[in-house]
Amino acid sequence: MTVVVGYIPHRGGRGALDLALQLAHARGEAMAVVTVVPRQWTTPSLAKIDAEYGEYARQVGEQAEAQARDYLRDTSVEVATTYRSVTGRSVSSALVDAVHELEASTLVIGSSADGAEGRIVTGSTADKLLHSAPVPLAIAPRGYRSVAAAGFSRLTCAFSDSPSSARVVAHAVALAKQLGTALRVASFGVRNATMYPPEVGLTAEDSVLDSWSGQAAQAQRRLVVEGIIGDDVPCVIATGSGWDESVTSIDWQAGELLAVGSSAAGPLARVFLGSRAGKLIRASPVPVLVLVA
Amino acid sequence: MSAPAGLRAELLRRKPVRSTGGQHAAGEHGEHLPRSIGTFQLTMFGVGATVGTGIFFVLSSAVPEAGPAVIVAFVVAGIAAGLAAICYAEMASAVPVSGSTYSYAYATLGEIVAMGVAACLLLEYGVSTAAVAVGWSGYLNEALRNLTGVELPQAILAAPWDAEPGVVNLPAVVLVGLCMLLLIRGASESARVNAIMVVIKLSVLAMFIVVAFTAFDANNFADFAPFGVGGVSVAAGTIFFSFIGLDAVSTAGDEVKDPQKTMPRALLAALFIVITFYVLVAAAAVGTQPWQEFEGQSEAGLAQILEKVTGTPIWATILAVGAVISIFSVTLVTLYGQTRILFAMGRDGMLPRMFARVSPRTQTPVQNTVIVAVIVAILAAIVPLDYLIDVVSIGTLTAFIVVSLGVIILRRREPDLPRGFKVPGYPVTPVLSILACAYILASLHWYTWLVFAGWIAVFLVFYMLYGRKHSVLGQERGEEPVVDGERT
C-alpha cells in the first residue's frame, strides 16, 4: 500500500509532505508524491501552438519533484518514495485518479495558504476531496512540521453517539495498533447560543449541554461494554460555547493525530464529511485523518 | 409503603438549589459572565418578549367585550402583569438559578406545585405559540394580498370553528414547522436580533398610531363603556395575553448588575413602554371606527384599519410586513421556551426522559421539539384565536398568582434567605398582585375555566401516576425504588 500526497510547491506543500512521511513511516508503507500539473489541449494542431504551454507544465512538475526530493533528502527515516506528475480536469479529480492507480491507502493534502498558522484551512480542492475521496483523507494544518522518526504520540478518535461513529472508533482501534500509538476517544459538544429574549432564563442551553454530556459519557461506556474499545482507552468529553472552545477544552500533545468519521449520509465507501465534522476539523490544532464511515 | 405523612412529604419535596440544572456547565465555560446585564438590555428583554404576543390581533376580540373602555382594560391588565412581574423578580432572585417559573416553584414550593405551574406554563408558552401563529397567518395573508395580489382561499386560512369557518389554518402550521426546523438545527435569536425586532415592532406600531390618529373621531368614544365595569374586566382577561413575556425581565436572574435597582427600573421601563404603546394603539384604533365594527375583523385587524382609514394599501402593507417579520420571531422564541421547560421537566423525571434526550447529531432536544411543534401545530390549525387567547390568559394568570403567593410563603418560611431583589412594599405588593390577577381571572368565561380545570386535573393525575414515582429527586432521596436504571 501507498500513502499518496498531493504536493504543490510553496503553497503548504511541506506540511503535507511531513504528515505523509510520518504516516508512511509509522505504517511501513511507501509514499508517492503526486503533483498535479496543468493539462494540455489534446486537439492536434499544425503549428503546435500548445507546445510552450506543455513545456511550462512539464517544468512545474519537474520543479515540484526537485523541491520535494530536496526536502525529503534530509529526513532520517527510510521510506520508499516515488514521484509523478499527473493531469486531470481538476486537482481533486486528478488526485482521486492517482489514488486509484496507485492503490493508495491514504491521501494526504495540506491546508490552504489563506488561513492562520497551525490551523486546518480547507480550500476548494480539500472541500471537494472531503466529499469524494475514495480512501481516508489526511489534512495537515498550515505550517505543519513533524519528525517522522518520532511517529505519532497519540491518536484521538472523535466519537458521537451513533452506529456509524462506533464503526469509526473500531477503525481507529485498528489504526492505532498499526501506528503503534495510544488511542483516545473524545466526544465534542458545543453549547447552543442563548435565545433572546430569555423567557426561560439564560442558562437553558447549559442544561441541554449538560444532558448531552451525560449521554455522551454513556455512549462512551457502551463502546467499552460492546468490546469496541478496551477499558484502558481514555475517554474524554470536550465542551465549550463554540467549536474552538470545545476542542481546546481538552489537552492535545505534539505529534497527535485526530481521526474523524465521515457522514453516514454520503455514498458508501467514500469520505463524505458531515457539517459538524467539518466544523470540528477547522478547529483542530493537530492533523486530521478523515476515515470512511 | 407511604403513610399519609410520607405522601405529603413526597408531594412537597423541594429541589435543592445546588442541583438545579446547568450551574455546573455554566461555571465551566466563561459564557456566564457575572452580572453583565444592565437596565437598558433588561428593558429590551421585557419589551422584546412582550410586544408582539398580542397587540397585533387582540383588539378584534377585546373591543367587542368592553367597547372603547378597552383602553382602561389595557391599563388594568398592564398593572396586574407589572405587579406579578415584580413578584416574579423576587422569586427569581431568591433561587440562584436562571429558569422558568417551573424551576423556581420546584425549588421553593414543592414538587406538586411545580407540576401545577408547569401545566399553566404549557398554556402560557405552548398554547400562546399556537395563538401567535394564528395571528401571523392573518398578517401573512394581508401582506401577500397587498404585495402580490394573491389571496389565499379561506379554507386554508381559518380553523373549522372560526367565525368565518375554514378547514385548516395552513400558514400557522407552516410557521410552526419552520420554527421547529430552526430549533432542531440549533438556531437562536441573538440579543442583537432581539433589539432589531423590538425596533421593527415599535416602529410599525408607532406608524399605526400616527396614521390612525389622522382619522380620529371623538364620537366613537361617546358610548365609552357599553358593558360597564364587567365588560372592562372581561376584556382585561383577553388582553392579559398581550402582556405575557414581561416576566422575561425577571428570568435574567443573577446576571443582572445591581438587581435591587436594575430589576424594578427595567420592569417599570418595559411596562411603561408597553402600556403606552398599547393604550395609544387602542385609542387610535377605537378613534377610527365605532366599536361595534371591530367584531369580525380578521386577525390582521390593525392593517385593515389602516387600509380603511387611508384608502391606500401602502400603510397596511408596511404594517403587515413588519408584523409578519416580528411575529415570526415571537413564535420562535415562545416555541423554544416551551421545549426548554419540558426539557427541564424531563431531566427532573417529571416527564418521560425522552423529553430530556439530546440528539447526538444536532445536539438539540429533537424529539422534544418535534412533539411540542406537532401539538402546537394541531392547535393552531383547528382552534380559533379567541379560545386560544383566553386559555393562555387563564394559565398565565394562575402561574402569576402562584409566584406571588410563593413570595409570601418564602418570606415567612425562609426570612433569612439571601435575595438579590426584594419586592418593594411587601406585603402589600404581592397581595395586590394576587388580587389583581384574581379579579381578571374571575371574569373569564365559564368554558375557559372548564378547559383549564380539566387540563390541570389531567396534569396532576399524570403526576400522581408517573412523575411522583419517576422523580429524580425522589430517587436520589431513596423515597421510591429506582424504576428505570437509566440515570445519567
Order of helices and strands of chain B: HHHHHHHHHHHHHHHHHHH
Mean pLDDT of chain B: 87
Computed over alpha carbons, the radius of gyration of chain A is 21 Å
Strand content of chain A: 15-25%
Series of H and E elements of chain A: EHEHEHEHEEHEHEHEHE
Q: Reading side by side through the largest sheet of chain A, how are the strands ordered?
A: 3-2-1-4-5-10-9-6-7-8
Find the count of extended strands of chain B (DSSP E, 2+ residues): 0
Distance between the termini of chain A: 20 Å
Tell me the major beta sheet of chain A: 10 strands, mixed
Largest sheet of chain B: none
Greatest interface (CB-CB under 8 A), with counts per chain:
A-B, 40 and 54 residues
Oligomeric state of this protein: heterodimer
Task: Give the helix proportion of chain A (percent range).
Answer: 25-40%
Describe, in plain words, how this protein is organized in 3D.
The complex is a heterodimer of chains A (about 290) and B (about 500). Chain A has eight helices and ten strands. In chain A, strands 3-2-1-4-5-10-9-6-7-8 form a ten-stranded mixed beta sheet, sandwiched between helices. Chain A has helices spanning about 15-25, 50-75, 90-100, 125-130, 165-180, 205-225, 245-250, 275-285, and strands at about 1-5, 30-35, 80-85, 105-110, 135-140, 155-160, 180-190, 235-240, 255-260, 290. Chain A is an alpha/beta fold and about 290 residues long. In chain A, strand 6, helix 5 (about 165-180) and strand 7 form a beta-alpha-beta unit. The two termini of chain A are about 20 Å apart. Chain B is mainly alpha-helical. Helix content of chain B is about 65%, strand content about 0%. Chain B is built from 19 helices and no strands. Chain B has helices spanning about 5-10, 25-30, 40-50, 60-65, 70-95, 100-110, 110-150, 170-185, 190-215, 230-240, 250, 260-290, 300-310, 315-350, 365-380, 385-415, 430-440, 445-470, 470-475. In chain B, helix 3 (about 40-50) packs across helix 9, helix 7 (about 110-150) crosses helix 15 (about 365-380) and helix 8 packs across helix 14 (about 315-350). The two termini of chain B are about 25 Å apart. The model of chain B is unreliable at about 20-35 and about 480-488 (pLDDT under 50). Chains A and B meet through helix 6 of A and helix 2, helix 3, helix 9 and helix 14 of B.
